[in-house]
Amino acid sequence: MITAYLWQTILWMLLYPGKIYISINAIDINKNDVKIKWYLVANDYVSLKNKAIDILRGFNYGELLRFMSTVILGDGNVTLLKHSNSKARLKPRD
Question: Does this model's pTM top 0.85?
């Protein structure tokens, strides 16, 4: 995982306990601030990538909402777009 947010780095370390490779080899320069780019690799974990759909099928409505909010928050910024026909949708910000 690569991130410029310290809270995502801490969350990554909590979700993947054990040996973690951490590298800081860049900075993220924006108009308003400068952040460190963290490069993280968890060495001691079993991937659930192939079982993701099975895990999601077992979620109830509340668990699914919590999961989706962490997906949105973990991916950065989200913009709420409203179309002329009054249907709103979410779009990740570039």
Answer: no
